[in-house]
Amino acid sequence: MNSVRARYFAKLSNNMVGMLGGIVTALLVPKSLGPAHYGDFNFLKDSFDSLVRTMDMNASSAHFTYSSRNKESGPANQVYFYFSILVGIALAVLVGAAIFSGAASSIWPGQGATFVFAGAALGFLAYLASNLTNLSDSRGFTVAVENQRRLIVALSMLILLAMYFSGLLGLASFFSYSIAVQAAMVLLSAALLKRAGVFGFGFKRVGIEDIKSTARYFYGYSSPLVTALVIGLVLGFFDRWLLQAVGGSATQGHYSLALKLSMVCALFTNSMAPVFSQSVASAHASGDMGRVRDLFGKVRVFYFTAAFISVFFVFHAEEIVFLVGGDEYGGATLPVTVMMFYPIHQAFGQLFGSAVLSMQFTNIYRNVSILSSSAGLVLSVFLVAPPGSGVPGLGMGAAGLAIKVVALQVLSSNLMLFYACRKAGFGFAGLAAMQVVLLLPVLGIGYLSSFAGGLVLWAGGMTAAGAVGRLVLDGSAYVLGSAILCLAFPALLGIKREDMRGYARAFLMKGA
Questions:
Q1: How many CB atoms lie within 10 A of CB 240?
Q2: Domain ranges, ordered by start, for the chain
Q3: How far is CA 235 from the centre of its chain?
Q4: Candidate ranges 81-95, 333-347, 498-512; pick with highest mean pLDDT
Q5: Closest Cα partner for 199 from 78, 359, 282?
Q6: CB burial class (10 A; 0-12, 13-18, 19+) of residue 487?
Q7: Is residue 263's pLDDT more than 50?
Q8: C-alpha pair distances (Å), 386 with each of 144, 236, 242, 255, 382
Q9: What sign has the CA pseudo-torsion 438, 334, 446, 21?
Q10: Among 66, 29, 309, which Cα is nearest to 169's?
Q11: Burial code of 84-122, b = ≥16 C-beta within 10 A, e = fewer?
Q12: Interacting residues of 378 by C-beta distance below 8 A, sequence separation 6+
């Protein structure tokens, strides 16, 4: 088993490579596909990601928590292996029935049957890849799997570059490419885990008592979440369906670009969530609440990291959109600006949401999810629906949906934080105030540094060279200002100066 530090830095370095891959993808794919096809791809992908997660009924989280808390999880692994196969079969049946009955044209407006099947295949393979990553994390075999994932990401970027420069990058070829990458992740991760003795991936007989005990645990863990999952699926799909119906594929593309760029920013901080969740689950299982509270106290640095990355792009959304999509994506500037706030609380919500699940307070997770989803329905209609519709709204399109997503993320993450702190005996008020105390100076530095490049490069209007130059100059001023802030007030991050030196040494050593 790898150490916590080694696992974290394996995740961190892998997500840094993933961030680089995300940047390459963002620079090549939106411009090659155009807003309409880019919107179609993401509409289908996100739809099936949500559908598969709902069909899983949160069994993946139950399996992760069980495997993290129990050294002997072989029978549970086998049961969940069979369950995952059943999810794939059920998905194929549902999609086939929708297409052959003609319902697919209403569920996925404007999408051909071939692309609907491709979206389903991509969603299922991504689900399997995520399950294998969770299995490796729960058993402490993070480093080897993450090393392999970095290799796959690097090779896939070379293939994508070759497709782009050869003129082969279109909607069909990008679906094929994405499916192939996820299939490689699944096959190579499975081979590595099998070789390490974590799981054999064979069709083995499972005793009836093992099936019953695993089913009881999974049901007890997941049953409070089923209602939340179904509501989340319906309302989450409704958001994208409403945007597609009101604004069409191009508006869907503008929102998709904003969402994808925000997730690239989130990759850096997301590296901590699986390790944090496993550590909380282990400490809670052993009754070490002091350790749980100590883990809660260390999240300041991750909140600051998320804010540091996101705020820079808040003030440079126009340059980013121009470089990534060109003039066709001009309508994405406001949605991107808004969505760049999303990773800040997404990191917070993911950490404390995983903590709530790891401590097995699934009823709390359910209630927060239902409340957030219900509030989101009202906001979606109010912000996205056109003024002249049956239920009139503001007709803000992609920008309206972005505002709704960010507002709901702030609400849900703080509710998760409140209940996690309450159960762990940790002060909520300090972490709530910290969100404002840390964010305000970062916003100030971002605002002031945004003038650096403008003073030199903005006279001739927007050009690629000018946009890059402004990002470099403003970014240099931003990094310098943020570094001064950290060195002058390390207590803002909840650390001491000697701790900062230790983190720097650990990063350079990559957790060795």
A1: 22
A2: 4-509
A3: 18
A4: 81-95
A5: 78
A6: exposed
A7: yes
A8: 50, 19, 10, 17, 9
A9: positive
A10: 29
A11: beebbeebeeebeebbeeeebeeebeebeeebbbbbbbb
A12: none
| Number of Cα atoms under 13 Å in the Cβ half of residue 234 | 9
Which amino acid, residue 143? V
Instruction: Tell me the CA end-to-end span of the chain in Å, nearest whole number.
Output: 13
Flag the least confident range among 148-157, 406-415, 425-434.
425-434
pLDDT in tens, 205-214: 877 888 888 8
Q: Is 247 helix (H, G, I), strand (E, B) or coil?
A: helix
Nearest to 335 by CA among 347, 324, 349: 324
The first and second tokens of residue 414, run together, are 């703080």
Q: Does pTM surpass 0.90?
A: no
Whether 368 and 436 have beta carbons less than 8 Å apart is answered as no
Residue type, 206: V
Please state, in angstroms and rounded to a whole number, the distance separating the CA atoms of residues 356 and 347: 14
- Show Cβ contacts of residue 65 under 8 Å, excluding neighbours closer than 6 positions: 138, 221, 281, 357, 358, 360
Contact criterion met (CB below 8 Å) for 339 and 380? no
Task: Indicate the angle between helix axes 59-69 and 272-285, nearest 10 degrees.
Answer: 60
Write down the residue that tokens 């009823």 correspond to.
Answer: 363
Nearest CA-CA partner of 47 in 257, 243, 238: 238
> Under DSSP, is residue 147 helix (H, G, I), strand (E, B) or coil?
helix
Q: DSSP secondary structure string, 327-358? A: GGGGGGHHHHHHHTTHHHHHHHHHHHHHHHHH
